[in-house]
Amino acid sequence: KPFEECEVPEEITLKREKKEKREAAKEQKKEMVTKPKRNSAAAVKKMQKQLEGLALIETFIGDVLKTGLASLTGNSIKTYKDLATQMGDYYLPGPQSIMNGILYDVNALREDNENESVTYISMMNRIKQLYSIVKKGRVFLQEKIENKQVPLEDSVLYEDLGYVWKLDQLDELGLYKDDADIVQLSFNVVRDDIKAQYDDLGYWIDLNDGTISKSENFRPFRAVKHMKEDDTVFQCVNAKRLYFYPGNANKRIRYDEFTMRDVTAADCMKIISYAKDDLSILVKEAKNQIKNVLADQTIVSLLKVKQIGKVGDLYVLEDTLGNQIELRNATGASTLQSIPFLPDHSLLKDQVMTIEIAYEAMTNKMVAILHSIITNEQIIRLVY
Hints:
Elements: H1 10-31, H2 40-67, H3 74-86, H4 93-111, H5 116-147, H6 157-161, H7 167-172, E1 176-192, E2 197-206, E3 212-220, E4 236-244, E5 252-255, E6 258-261, H8 265-273, H9 279-290, E7 298-311, E8 314-319, E9 324-328, H10 335-338, E10 349-360, E11 365-374, E12 379-381
Parallel strand pairs: 3-5, 9-11
Antiparallel strand pairs: 1-2, 1-4, 2-3, 4-5, 4-6, 7-8, 7-10, 8-9, 10-11, 11-12
Helix pairs in contact: 2-5, 3-4, 4-5
């Protein structure tokens, strides 16, 4: 039986109009970008306090270089421990962490004399980091105070000094990308005894442009029971908004709203298309980056690999142009011991692989860490 058409009752029309107005108000509220208010006077005061802290660090560096690293014993250790603790009062958690690293190395020297040379190299690198932060940080802060340029900017120095970025600040600076499809290439949990925390570290590739970035979830030891641990992600993530932190290669990323789907063969082929041919170029890029002592000391990239084989007790990777590099285990993961257990030995030949290039102080060599193998149909992870 056909229904008769009639006018919509006024009561229903009014309800619809009210609902439409509510929905419109919600959308308008979402679209409004509320910029965080920054107290300029307070920010300047904080920066001046940071400058005072940098001056104390400069004195510390001068004392250590004058008397030598071997002088870090007895009463001097207590003095420097107290100084490192004070850095929190000067809003300098970044330098504070480096100073704690130097003290950590001092304790390591007492317990293990066999790796004395490597530990001294580590201590000198940390001294260089502190000096670089003092030099660059002082200029950076003084310019902001003098020019009254308090607003944040896209600079890695904020994080070097110990600043913690908020998503709305990254949003304000335009450090994001909408509707990003990313796939995780590897995942590892790294224990950091100096900072007293775990770092859930994942490396991801953007399917749209091949950019490799990293996600980090820091879990302090004291709060580890109350914080969710990240894990390996086997699906493709579509991030509604993907945020980028200031940085060099492999910038840190973060996302909140997302959907997931299965990784397809087409995705794998897309990932493969972004691989580089020449290992020497990747090594050169890594060397250039680690010249900046404040930058990440490794770079993760995709490489077309001819083969991985053994030379004596060492695993060696060779690219399609004949360049070779020794392989090492990932931090806290026995990646090399996993190689013999791969489902098919042919996976070690003519494949695209995710590798991490790093400098090894003990041997004075650039080495590589194998993270994963990308075939035409799947990603086989050795770091997961």
